[in-house]
Specification:
By secondary structure, the protein is α/β, with parallel strands linked by helices. The chain is built from ten helices and eleven strands. The radius of gyration is 20 Å and the shape is elongated.
């Protein structure tokens, strides 16, 4: 998997903006379910109204005061910014009046990490968390959130970069589970795992090269880490995990859909927790 190569763009006082460098292949998947706000006033009002902006697209080369104000709001809200061509914005735009800026907004509000622990406390259970590393298909995300709910997990964590968010397709595919299962978006999965370890969570990473799940102790406070549809869990995230676990493969193909693998591993955790 190619490493993230984001950088800083000198734009007046915008030097700390997070520049998104997702590749074009993933862009197509991430933009499959559009929830866009177009035009300078509309985007600014979206920020002011507190809408969750997953990504901001800005026409490359624009440096007027209105764009500067929007970029300041993006920086304040820790939003990924993608500088792109007018042709790309024209293609994305439904109104054809984007004025050089389009915001991709979440269809749902995100929770906080503390909400996951509060839910576990309410149920008097050890925390059980799904951590998703670069899932880009909204159908997979929705299905995983649904699985998290029905198997009793207390929350789902996704990264801000190179990952699909709570689009309307993901929310619909969750079949209402998103209303009951907290979904948290974090800046860095590896750092979040380190933080959660200080709170007593152990982490099991799904990987075909791991130990068969039946041979692993998956009881107690646990986080199940699932990787992207194509490349699996990234090396840096995998190194943070305590266990590498595998679903036994008996057929002629050597991989499972991300949401299916999540369900199988999650219910092995459920089985062990019921002993």
């Amino acid at each position: 998997m190619p490493e993230y190569k984001g950088g800083k763009r000198n734009f007046g006082d915008m030097t700390e903006l997070k520049i998104d460098s997702s590749n074009e292949k993933n862009d197509k998947k991430l933009e499959e379910d559009k929830s866009f706000v177009e035009g300078r006033n509309a985007v600014m009002e979206a920020f002011r109204a507190g809408k969750t902006v997953d990504r901001l697209y800005v026409q490359d080369g624009l440096k007027d005061s209105a764009i500067s104000s929007i970029l300041r709001m993006a920086k304040k809200n820790n939003v990924n910014v993608r500088f792109t061509s007018k042709q790309k914005l024209d293609f994305m735009s439904e109104t054809k009046k984007h004025q050089g800026v389009i915001a991709q907004c979440s269809a749902y509000k995100y929770a906080e990490l503390e909400d996951i622990f509060e839910l576990a406390k309410e149920k008097n259970e050890d925390p059980f968390i799904f951590i998703l590393d670069e899932i880009v298909d909204p159908h997979n995300l929705g299905a995983i959130i649904r699985t998290a709910n029905v198997c009793g997990a207390h929350g789902v964590i996704i990264p801000k970069n190179r990952s699909v968010g709570l689009t309307s397709t993901a929310v619909k595919t969750s079949a209402g589970a998103v209303n009951y299962t907290p979904v948290v978006k974090v800046t860095n999965i590896s750092q979040t795992i380190e933080e959660l370890k200080t709170r007593g969570i152990w982490f099991a990473c799904a990987d075909m090269a791991g130990e068969v799940m039946y041979n692993c102790d998956l009881t107690g406070p646990i986080g199940l880490v699932i990787g992207s549809e194509g490349s699996g869990v990234s090396r840096l995230v995998k190194e943070k995990c305590d266990y590498i676990v595998a679903v036994p493969m008996k057929g002629n193909v050597d991989s499972l859909n991300a949401s299916v693998a999540t369900g199988i591993l999650a219910y092995e955790i459920v089985r062990q927790r019921m002993k």
